[in-house]
Amino acid sequence: MKLLYTYLILLNCIAFIFFSYDKWQAKRNKQRISERNLFSLVFFGGTIGGLIGMYFFKHKNRKTSFLLVFYGIIILQVLLFYVF
Fold this sequence. Notes:
Blueprint: H1 2-27, H2 35-56, H3 64-83
Helix pairs in contact: 1-2, 2-3
């Protein structure tokens, strides 16, 4: 269980950093992190870090297509948690 907690804490920290870095790159009109990579981090357990990063940095929180996929992943995770 300790390994799982460590994994989730690290992944959430990484997701938060990636969301902040992507916002920083967006402001500078530089190369961005792909949405696919951001979604992958969220899907594999970085949900809380991604959510905090998204709203703390006001990043992609108005892009409807991004929000639909993001919250779809959260719903899928909740369903999987409930089933297993």
